[in-house]
Amino acid sequence: MGTLKLEDRTAEYQWATDVNFDGIRLEVLSSDGTTLFDISIPDDGHITVNTFGKEVAANLIEAAVEIARQPR
Fold first, then answer.
1. Could you tell me which of 25, 17, 19, 28 has the C-alpha nearest to residue 62?
2. Contact at 8 Å (CB) between 29 and 37?
3. Number of domains in the chain
4. How far is it, in rounded angstroms, from Cα 45 to Cα 11?
5. Nearest Cα to 36, choosing from 52, 24, 18?
6. Confidence of residue 7 (pLDDT cuts 50, 70, 90)
7. Bridging pattern class, strands 10-16 and 2-5
């Protein structure tokens, strides 16, 4: 588990795998530990963001995408 540090807040994240997905996901967690949004990083293709219909601050998504683009 890691921590995203922003000017006004922090958020925890974790890496997750899914047998039905060829790639890895970065799950960003809310303060109560539920998934706020996830970023899917496929083995082949484009990175996508799923907010599950929630409004999420753009700077939090940007910080998570930066982490997702780094080599693992």
1. 28
2. no
3. 1
4. 27
5. 52
6. confident
7. antiparallel
20 in helix, strand or coil?
A: coil
Full domain range(s) for residue 36: 2-69
Task: List the structure tokens of 39.
Answer: 């970023």
DSSP letters spanning 35-70: EEEEEEEESSS--EEE-TT----HHHHHHHHHHHHS
Q: Say what the pLDDT of residue 2 is.
A: 93
pLDDT at 32: 92
What one-letter code names the amino acid at 26?
L
Mean local confidence (pLDDT), 42-66: 95
Per-residue pLDDT at 34:
93
